[in-house]
Protein backbone atom coordinates (compact mmCIF):
# COMPACT_ATOMS: atom_id res chain seq x y z
CA UNK A 1 0.00 0.00 0.00
CA UNK A 2 1.23 3.44 -0.82
CA UNK A 3 -0.01 5.36 2.17
CA UNK A 4 1.54 2.78 4.47
CA UNK A 5 5.16 3.10 3.43
CA UNK A 6 4.78 6.65 2.36
CA UNK A 7 7.85 8.48 3.45
CA UNK A 8 9.60 8.91 6.72
CA UNK A 9 6.69 10.62 8.46
CA UNK A 10 4.79 7.38 8.96
CA UNK A 11 7.92 5.68 10.24
CA UNK A 12 8.59 8.41 12.78
CA UNK A 13 4.96 8.34 13.89
CA UNK A 14 5.12 4.57 14.25
CA UNK A 15 8.35 4.74 16.25
CA UNK A 16 6.90 7.31 18.65
CA UNK A 17 3.63 5.41 19.02
CA UNK A 18 5.43 2.09 19.55
CA UNK A 19 7.61 3.66 22.24
CA UNK A 20 4.54 5.19 23.86
CA UNK A 21 2.62 1.88 23.77
CA UNK A 22 5.46 -0.09 25.37
CA UNK A 23 6.40 2.60 27.89
CA UNK A 24 2.85 3.14 29.12
CA UNK A 25 2.21 -0.63 29.07
CA UNK A 26 5.23 -1.04 31.34
CA UNK A 27 4.19 1.84 33.60
CA UNK A 28 0.88 0.06 34.27
CA UNK A 29 2.73 -2.27 36.61
CA UNK A 30 5.10 0.33 37.97
CA UNK A 31 2.82 3.06 39.24
CA UNK A 32 1.60 3.37 42.80
CA UNK A 33 -1.88 4.45 41.84
CA UNK A 34 -4.27 1.87 40.45
CA UNK A 35 -6.38 4.54 38.77
CA UNK A 36 -3.29 5.87 37.04
CA UNK A 37 -2.45 2.29 36.04
CA UNK A 38 -5.75 1.95 34.20
CA UNK A 39 -5.19 5.25 32.40
CA UNK A 40 -1.67 4.18 31.42
CA UNK A 41 -3.22 1.06 29.93
CA UNK A 42 -5.70 3.27 28.09
CA UNK A 43 -2.85 5.31 26.57
CA UNK A 44 -1.16 2.09 25.48
CA UNK A 45 -4.37 0.94 23.76
CA UNK A 46 -4.86 4.32 22.08
CA UNK A 47 -1.30 4.24 20.73
CA UNK A 48 -2.00 0.79 19.25
CA UNK A 49 -5.29 2.12 17.84
CA UNK A 50 -3.45 4.96 16.08
CA UNK A 51 -1.00 2.42 14.65
CA UNK A 52 -3.99 0.45 13.33
CA UNK A 53 -5.22 3.61 11.62
CA UNK A 54 -1.74 4.09 10.13
CA UNK A 55 -2.13 0.55 8.79
CA UNK A 56 -5.37 1.61 7.04
CA UNK A 57 -7.60 -0.35 9.43
CA UNK A 58 -9.55 2.80 10.28
CA UNK A 59 -12.61 1.10 11.66
CA UNK A 60 -10.66 -1.10 14.05
CA UNK A 61 -8.51 1.79 15.24
CA UNK A 62 -11.50 4.00 16.00
CA UNK A 63 -13.42 1.09 17.57
CA UNK A 64 -10.39 0.59 19.79
CA UNK A 65 -10.56 4.21 21.01
CA UNK A 66 -14.22 3.98 21.97
CA UNK A 67 -14.09 0.54 23.48
CA UNK A 68 -10.98 1.13 25.52
CA UNK A 69 -12.05 4.58 26.73
CA UNK A 70 -15.19 3.02 28.20
CA UNK A 71 -13.45 -0.11 29.47
CA UNK A 72 -10.68 1.75 31.22
CA UNK A 73 -13.09 4.23 32.79
CA UNK A 74 -15.04 1.29 34.20
CA UNK A 75 -11.76 -0.18 35.37
CA UNK A 76 -10.77 3.05 37.10
CA UNK A 77 -14.18 3.13 38.81
CA UNK A 78 -13.65 -0.42 40.03
CA UNK A 79 -10.26 0.54 41.35
CA UNK A 80 -11.84 3.30 43.41
CA UNK A 81 -14.63 1.01 44.60
CA UNK A 82 -12.73 -2.10 45.59
CA UNK A 83 -9.00 -1.77 45.51
CA UNK A 84 -6.68 -0.50 48.11
CA UNK A 85 -4.69 2.61 47.35
CA UNK A 86 -6.49 3.81 44.21
CA UNK A 87 -4.99 7.27 44.44
CA UNK A 88 -1.40 6.20 44.93
CA UNK A 89 -0.89 7.94 48.24
CA UNK A 90 1.38 5.15 49.49
CA UNK A 91 4.10 3.27 47.68
CA UNK A 92 2.66 0.08 46.26
CA UNK A 93 4.24 -2.94 44.71
CA UNK A 94 2.00 -5.93 45.15
CA UNK A 95 3.66 -8.78 43.32
CA UNK A 96 4.30 -12.44 43.83
CA UNK A 97 6.65 -14.85 42.06
CA UNK A 98 8.22 -11.84 40.40
CA UNK A 99 11.34 -13.59 39.11
CA UNK A 100 9.33 -16.28 37.37
CA UNK A 101 7.03 -13.61 35.96
CA UNK A 102 9.94 -11.54 34.62
CA UNK A 103 11.49 -14.68 33.14
CA UNK A 104 8.24 -15.74 31.50
CA UNK A 105 7.68 -12.25 30.10
CA UNK A 106 11.18 -12.02 28.65
CA UNK A 107 10.94 -15.57 27.28
CA UNK A 108 7.62 -14.77 25.66
CA UNK A 109 9.05 -11.65 24.08
CA UNK A 110 12.17 -13.44 22.84
CA UNK A 111 10.27 -16.38 21.33
CA UNK A 112 7.68 -14.19 19.62
CA UNK A 113 10.35 -11.66 18.59
CA UNK A 114 12.49 -14.41 17.08
CA UNK A 115 9.47 -15.59 15.13
CA UNK A 116 8.85 -12.04 13.93
CA UNK A 117 12.43 -11.67 12.73
CA UNK A 118 13.24 -15.17 11.49
CA UNK A 119 10.01 -16.52 10.06
CA UNK A 120 9.20 -15.86 6.42
CA UNK A 121 5.73 -14.43 5.98
CA UNK A 122 4.11 -13.90 2.59
CA UNK A 123 4.51 -10.39 1.24
CA UNK A 124 0.93 -9.63 0.25
CA UNK A 125 0.06 -6.07 1.24
CA UNK A 126 -3.44 -4.68 1.15
CA UNK A 127 -4.33 -3.77 -2.45
CA UNK A 128 -4.35 -0.04 -3.05
CA UNK A 129 -7.95 -0.02 -4.29
CA UNK A 130 -9.34 -1.92 -1.30
CA UNK A 131 -11.76 -0.06 0.95
CA UNK A 132 -11.05 -1.61 4.36
CA UNK A 133 -14.20 -0.48 6.14
CA UNK A 134 -16.49 -1.52 3.30
CA UNK A 135 -14.84 -4.91 2.93
CA UNK A 136 -15.09 -5.52 6.68
CA UNK A 137 -18.77 -4.59 6.68
CA UNK A 138 -19.50 -6.88 3.74
CA UNK A 139 -17.67 -9.70 5.47
CA UNK A 140 -19.43 -9.26 8.82
CA UNK A 141 -22.90 -9.17 7.30
CA UNK A 142 -22.04 -11.62 4.52
CA UNK A 143 -19.91 -14.72 4.59
CA UNK A 144 -18.92 -14.44 8.24
CA UNK A 145 -22.30 -13.43 9.56
CA UNK A 146 -22.63 -16.60 11.63
CA UNK A 147 -19.33 -15.86 13.39
CA UNK A 148 -20.34 -12.26 14.00
CA UNK A 149 -23.75 -13.27 15.35
CA UNK A 150 -22.17 -15.94 17.53
CA UNK A 151 -20.05 -13.23 19.11
CA UNK A 152 -23.24 -11.32 19.87
CA UNK A 153 -24.82 -14.41 21.41
CA UNK A 154 -21.74 -15.04 23.55
CA UNK A 155 -21.89 -11.43 24.74
CA UNK A 156 -25.53 -11.93 25.74
CA UNK A 157 -24.56 -15.07 27.62
CA UNK A 158 -21.82 -13.08 29.32
CA UNK A 159 -24.32 -10.44 30.41
CA UNK A 160 -26.56 -13.09 31.99
CA UNK A 161 -23.59 -14.74 33.67
CA UNK A 162 -22.33 -11.42 35.00
CA UNK A 163 -25.73 -10.57 36.50
CA UNK A 164 -25.95 -14.01 38.11
CA UNK A 165 -22.44 -13.78 39.53
CA UNK A 166 -22.62 -10.26 40.85
CA UNK A 167 -26.21 -9.99 42.10
CA UNK A 168 -27.21 -10.50 45.69
CA UNK A 169 -28.19 -13.99 46.58
CA UNK A 170 -31.94 -14.03 47.01
CA UNK A 171 -33.96 -16.97 45.89
CA UNK A 172 -31.31 -19.56 46.58
CA UNK A 173 -30.11 -18.16 49.88
CA UNK A 174 -31.10 -15.84 52.66
CA UNK A 175 -32.50 -12.61 51.27
CA UNK A 176 -30.46 -10.48 53.63
CA UNK A 177 -27.27 -12.48 53.05
CA UNK A 178 -25.97 -10.28 50.29
CA UNK A 179 -26.83 -7.02 51.98
CA UNK A 180 -24.78 -7.73 55.09
CA UNK A 181 -21.10 -6.99 54.58
CA UNK A 182 -19.06 -10.13 55.12
CA UNK A 183 -16.58 -10.36 57.94
CA UNK A 184 -12.98 -9.35 57.49
CA UNK A 185 -12.06 -12.91 58.35
CA UNK A 186 -14.18 -15.92 57.46
CA UNK A 187 -17.01 -16.28 59.97
CA UNK A 188 -16.14 -12.99 61.68
CA UNK A 189 -18.38 -10.08 62.51
CA UNK A 190 -19.70 -8.05 59.59
CA UNK A 191 -17.19 -5.46 58.46
CA UNK A 192 -17.95 -1.78 58.84
CA UNK A 193 -20.15 -2.26 61.91
CA UNK A 194 -19.52 0.39 64.55
CA UNK A 195 -17.63 -0.86 67.55
CA UNK A 196 -19.89 -1.43 70.56
CA UNK A 197 -19.01 -0.26 74.02
CA UNK A 198 -15.29 0.17 73.55
CA UNK A 199 -14.54 1.01 77.20
CA UNK A 200 -16.44 -1.85 78.84
CA UNK A 201 -14.93 -4.60 76.73
CA UNK A 202 -11.41 -3.33 76.51
CA UNK A 203 -9.85 -6.50 77.73
CA UNK A 204 -11.98 -8.65 75.48
CA UNK A 205 -11.00 -6.54 72.48
CA UNK A 206 -7.39 -6.76 73.38
CA UNK A 207 -7.66 -10.49 73.45
CA UNK A 208 -9.56 -10.48 70.14
CA UNK A 209 -6.90 -8.47 68.35
CA UNK A 210 -4.31 -11.09 69.00
CA UNK A 211 -6.13 -13.64 66.85
CA UNK B 1 6.87 0.38 9.73
CA UNK B 2 7.31 -3.15 8.48
CA UNK B 3 5.69 -6.43 9.45
CA UNK B 4 8.76 -7.35 11.51
CA UNK B 5 8.74 -4.12 13.55
CA UNK B 6 4.99 -4.37 14.13
CA UNK B 7 5.32 -7.96 15.30
CA UNK B 8 8.20 -6.99 17.58
CA UNK B 9 6.00 -4.32 19.15
CA UNK B 10 3.23 -6.88 19.56
CA UNK B 11 5.73 -9.30 21.14
CA UNK B 12 6.84 -6.59 23.58
CA UNK B 13 3.24 -5.87 24.62
CA UNK B 14 2.53 -9.58 25.03
CA UNK B 15 5.71 -10.03 27.07
CA UNK B 16 4.81 -7.18 29.43
CA UNK B 17 1.30 -8.61 29.67
CA UNK B 18 2.63 -12.05 30.61
CA UNK B 19 4.75 -10.45 33.31
CA UNK B 20 1.77 -8.53 34.66
CA UNK B 21 -0.65 -11.45 34.58
CA UNK B 22 1.80 -13.70 36.41
CA UNK B 23 3.18 -11.21 38.92
CA UNK B 24 0.28 -9.07 40.11
CA UNK B 25 -1.49 -9.97 43.32
CA UNK B 26 -4.51 -7.75 42.81
CA UNK B 27 -7.22 -9.26 40.62
CA UNK B 28 -7.78 -6.14 38.58
CA UNK B 29 -4.07 -5.60 37.98
CA UNK B 30 -3.88 -9.22 36.84
CA UNK B 31 -6.68 -8.51 34.38
CA UNK B 32 -4.71 -5.54 33.06
CA UNK B 33 -1.92 -7.98 32.19
CA UNK B 34 -4.38 -10.13 30.25
CA UNK B 35 -5.64 -7.02 28.46
CA UNK B 36 -2.10 -6.10 27.42
CA UNK B 37 -1.62 -9.59 25.97
CA UNK B 38 -4.81 -9.19 23.93
CA UNK B 39 -3.64 -5.71 22.88
CA UNK B 40 -0.55 -7.30 21.34
CA UNK B 41 -2.61 -10.05 19.73
CA UNK B 42 -4.90 -7.49 18.07
CA UNK B 43 -1.93 -5.48 16.80
CA UNK B 44 -0.34 -8.64 15.35
CA UNK B 45 -3.63 -9.59 13.67
CA UNK B 46 -3.97 -6.17 12.04
CA UNK B 47 -0.29 -6.24 11.01
CA UNK B 48 -0.72 -9.62 9.31
CA UNK B 49 -3.87 -8.38 7.63
CA UNK B 50 -2.07 -5.30 6.32
CA UNK B 51 1.16 -6.93 5.12
CA UNK B 52 0.53 -10.65 4.52
CA UNK B 53 -3.17 -11.16 4.03
CA UNK B 54 -3.71 -9.38 0.73
CA UNK B 55 -6.52 -7.43 2.38
CA UNK B 56 -8.63 -10.48 3.22
CA UNK B 57 -11.50 -9.16 5.36
CA UNK B 58 -11.29 -12.13 7.71
CA UNK B 59 -8.14 -10.57 9.14
CA UNK B 60 -10.09 -7.56 10.37
CA UNK B 61 -12.90 -9.82 11.56
CA UNK B 62 -10.41 -11.73 13.72
CA UNK B 63 -9.52 -8.46 15.45
CA UNK B 64 -13.21 -7.76 16.12
CA UNK B 65 -13.53 -11.22 17.67
CA UNK B 66 -10.52 -10.55 19.91
CA UNK B 67 -12.18 -7.28 20.96
CA UNK B 68 -15.30 -9.26 21.91
CA UNK B 69 -13.12 -11.69 23.87
CA UNK B 70 -11.61 -8.72 25.67
CA UNK B 71 -15.03 -7.34 26.59
CA UNK B 72 -16.08 -10.76 27.87
CA UNK B 73 -12.88 -11.09 29.88
CA UNK B 74 -13.45 -7.69 31.48
CA UNK B 75 -17.11 -8.31 32.30
CA UNK B 76 -16.63 -11.80 33.70
CA UNK B 77 -13.51 -10.73 35.55
CA UNK B 78 -15.28 -7.85 37.27
CA UNK B 79 -18.28 -10.05 38.08
CA UNK B 80 -15.96 -12.58 39.69
CA UNK B 81 -14.21 -9.79 41.62
CA UNK B 82 -17.59 -8.64 42.92
CA UNK B 83 -18.59 -12.20 43.86
CA UNK B 84 -15.28 -12.86 45.62
CA UNK B 85 -15.42 -9.51 47.38
CA UNK B 86 -18.93 -10.25 48.64
CA UNK B 87 -17.88 -13.60 49.97
CA UNK B 88 -14.44 -12.93 51.33
CA UNK B 89 -13.85 -9.18 51.40
CA UNK B 90 -10.75 -9.96 49.37
CA UNK B 91 -9.15 -8.40 46.34
CA UNK B 92 -5.92 -10.37 46.30
CA UNK B 93 -5.25 -13.65 44.57
CA UNK B 94 -3.55 -15.04 47.68
CA UNK B 95 -6.73 -14.85 49.71
CA UNK B 96 -8.32 -17.54 47.57
CA UNK B 97 -7.18 -21.07 48.13
CA UNK B 98 -9.95 -22.86 46.26
CA UNK B 99 -12.56 -22.33 43.61
CA UNK B 100 -15.31 -22.60 46.21
CA UNK B 101 -15.79 -20.61 49.35
From TrEMBL, chain B:
It is a multi-pass membrane protein. The chain crosses the membrane at residues 33-54, 61-85. This is NADH-quinone oxidoreductase subunit K. Gene3D superfamilies: 1.10.287.3510. NDH-1 is composed of 14 different subunits. Subunits NuoA, H, J, K, L, M, N constitute the membrane sector of the complex. Belongs to the complex I subunit 4L family. NDH-1 shuttles electrons from NADH, via FMN and iron-sulfur (Fe-S) centers, to quinones in the respiratory chain. The immediate electron acceptor for the enzyme in this species is believed to be ubiquinone. Couples the redox reaction to proton translocation (for every two electrons transferred, four hydrogen ions are translocated across the cytoplasmic membrane), and thus conserves the redox energy in a proton gradient. It catalyses: a quinone + NADH + 5 H(+)(in) = a quinol + NAD(+) + 4 H(+)(out). GO terms for biological process: ATP synthesis coupled electron transport. The gene is nuoK. GO terms for cellular component: plasma membrane. Its EC number is 7.1.1.-. Keywords: Cell membrane, Membrane, NAD, Oxidoreductase, Quinone, Translocase, Transmembrane, Transmembrane helix, Transport, Ubiquinone. It is found in: Cell membrane; Membrane. Pfam families: Oxidored_q2. One of its GO terms (molecular function) is NADH dehydrogenase (quinone) (non-electrogenic) activity. The keyword NAD applies.
Amino acid sequence: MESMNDGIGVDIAFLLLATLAVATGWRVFRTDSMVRASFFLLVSFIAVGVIMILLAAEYLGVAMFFMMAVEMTVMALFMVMFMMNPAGLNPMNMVHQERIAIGAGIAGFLILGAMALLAVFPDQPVPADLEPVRSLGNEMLGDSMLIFESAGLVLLTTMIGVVVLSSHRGRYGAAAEGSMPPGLEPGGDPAGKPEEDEAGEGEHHHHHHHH
Amino acid sequence: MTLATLLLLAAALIGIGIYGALSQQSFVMLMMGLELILNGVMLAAVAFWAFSGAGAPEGQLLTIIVMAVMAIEMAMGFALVVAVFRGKQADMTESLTGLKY
